[in-house]
Structures are given as C-alpha cells and as structure tokens.
TrEMBL record:
It comes from Paenibacillus spongiae. This is Z-ring formation inhibitor MciZ. Residues 29-53 are annotated as: Disordered. Pfam families: MciZ (PF13072). InterPro entries: MciZ.
Length: 53
C-alpha cells in the first residue's frame, strides 16, 4: 500500500483491505492520543510529519 500526502490531501493506494486497515490504525492512534475524541482527517493532515526528500 502507498500513502501520498500533499498539503491538505491524503491519497491511499492499495487493496481495499489494506486501506481499511490503515484507516483503522490512524483512527486508533488518534483515539489513544486524545481520550474520548476522534481526530478528523483534516486534523491528521495538519499534524502529520512532513515528508523528508
């Protein structure tokens, strides 16, 4: 599976089960950081690590 993120965009490329798995991992990570609050995709994109090129 590949994950591309540019400014306010996130593109996941792969098989459906891989994408669902990745989204669940991202949601689980967000919920572990904030109790009883889920992070939106916009919030994830704002706080993600920048790409090292």
């Amino acid at each position: 599976m590949k994950q591309y993120s540019v400014s306010t965009r996130l593109t996941l490329v792969g098989k459906a089960w891989e994408i669902r798995h990745q989204l669940r991992l991202m949601a689980r990570e967000a919920s572990s950081r904030k109790k009883n609050a889920s992070r939106t995709l916009g919030e994830y994109l704002e706080h993600r690590r920048p790409l090292n090129r």
